[in-house]
Amino acid sequence: MASDEILVQQVTELGQKLGAARASIEQRFVGQHGVVEQVLAAILSGGHALLVGQPGLGKTMLVDTLATVMGLDSQRIQFTPDLMPADILGSEVLDVLADGSRAFRFIEGPVFTRLLMADEINRASPRTQSALLQAMQEREVTIGGQHRPLDRPFHVLATQNPIEQEGTYPLPEAQLDRFLLQIDVDYPDRDTERDILLATTGVEEGAAHAVFSPDALIAAQRLIRQMPVGEAVVESILDLVRACRPGADEAAGFVADTLVWGPGPRAAQALMLVTRARAALDGRFAPTLDDVEAMAAPVLRHRMALSFAARARGETVDGVILRILGERLGNRRAA
Predict the structure, then answer these.
(1) What CATH code is carried by the domain that includes residue 313?
(2) Domain that holds residue 249
(3) What is the pTM of this model?
(4) Which residue range or ranges hold the AAA+ ATPase domain (predicted)?
(5) 108: phi then psi, degrees, rounded to nearest 5
(6) 272-328 pLDDT, tens digit each
């Protein structure tokens, strides 16, 4: 069988497996199809995701369910203002041995897992938030001068309450950029909320089951990177990301007065990966411009900041992204 035929077969099989994973997740996390799609896309792309929404929308339950379905051992950290970096990474303790000698012993923190849930990450101080930076980027931590690798795969799924709520600290730009996607979890519509009531207040609730294993997930992540991407999709990604940078030659005309800073190359890399992942979730062999359009906001919204003048005008980051999408992808589709 030719290599292309093997790849098509593998992508088709992965699509079927992902369909089973999505169905298992949605037995518990009811009605939020877009949120489930984006979280799975982040995991398939090998990245981390930030889930933003009001309390009580099921963000914690989603992460817990995802750990079960993807076959990953998980740990949960409840971020609070008094949380210290050692509470995340671990620490060395001095042991007295039987012969009277002393030696340091390292006690692993909850970061030594495959799926780490950072619950309400913006309630901890910036110092504690930054303890995750090295782990998220390099998949290792340095403690006591020693580099300690983390298990593979390693993913951080963080939940965040809106910044306007009392007792929260905004995440620094460097850490926001480590998240592949920012997934906004909104209130459900009436029909969805009705389904939630019926599914979660009876005698029995839907139970998730394992579909993947760690090795199977790593294989899926490798397969995603082998999927071909057409020239039109590559150019549309470049058009979109570069149009969002104030001061750049290719920036959209209104960006200079609207944005303070925009996305870097990591955003383009993220968009390239998650468009492939979205195609695989639909059982398709290659991404299209529709995938770019669907994943643009989750990739870009936390990598851009509005100017004071734009905020005063009532503009939003998502509105700016939609406007740029209309300009740049519209030109690509017309061509």
Answers:
(1) 1.10.8.80
(2) 227-335
(3) 0.88
(4) 45-189
(5) -65, 140
(6) 999 999 999 988 888 999 999 999 999 999 998 888 888 888 888 889 899 888 887
